[in-house]
What we know:
Blueprint: E1 2-6, H1 18-23, H2 25-37, H3 42-48, H4 51-54, H5 57-74, E2 84-87, H6 91-98, H7 104-124, E3 127-133, H8 137-147, E4 154-161, E5 164-170, H9 171-183, E6 188-191, H10 207-215, E7 225-227, E8 234-235, H11 238-247, H12 255-263, E9 269-272, H13 278-286, E10 291-294
Parallel strand pairs: 1-2, 1-9, 2-7, 9-10
Antiparallel strand pairs: 3-5, 3-6, 4-5, 7-8
Helix pairs in contact: 2-5, 5-6, 5-7, 6-7, 7-10, 8-9
Amino acid sequence: MKAVLFPGQGSQKVGMGQELLDANEIGAEVLNRANEVFDGQLLPIMLDGPMEVLTETRWTQPAIFAHSMALWFTHKSAADSFDMTAGHSLGEYGSLVAAEVLSFEHALSLVKIRGELMHRAGETQPGTMAAILGLDDRVVEKVCERISQDEHEVVPANFNSSGQIVISGHVKAVHEAMESLQNEGAKLVKELTVGGAFHSPLMKSAESELASAMEEIPFAPATMDVYSNVTASASRDPDVLRTNLLSQLTGAVRWTQTMEAITQNGQVSIVECGPGVVLQKMWKRAYPETIIESL
């Protein structure tokens, strides 16, 4: 069994895509098609930065998606060898292209809208995120539940691997949770440099517009199993996959559970398709015996 994975935000770097432009006709075509959608602004930011612009979510998301898709279509002849796919947060859009649920153009249009809406939500509803290492998931969940109330919400946003969770929410609530989790014995509590409280109720303002955009785009039955972030379970049903994709805007990325579900299929080899090796590192820590490589 073989799975292809697509990364989310955090894998970006200045210069990303240059090797594809220089040496790969198919990859260059994909990147240039993406650049046209952004009126020629995307590639210069990917290649030359500056990093503080590239890390703005409205640019980070299309940059990582375009790079991942350039790699995917370059190696598309290997597509038939994959049995399943999953993507971390933004990466779920890549997984839906790989499974032929969405076309590249339709997925890119959704990524553009998603990035802009999340950027705007981060400005109108300021929030933050923090990485928590070394605690059981349930401890983090209970602390968040205890602290959260109206206009003072904090939730687990990313279950990245065992003992590694990212929390998200209002600034004061996240800071309170960070202090409480430190007292609970966390090995590391670190606030992240992000443009908003992603995968939390603070993204709710972006939901209706993204839902409307999704309704205008056809979702086809998947050609391989697609594991959704919010359910950590596989489906090929286009309506289910559409619903799950919208839900992850405010819902948690259950990557720990996704890795566990995929490994239950038996001996699985993993291929990461995108810039960096973030997902490979997570997988190697959790399942060191797994065969892991980049596409």
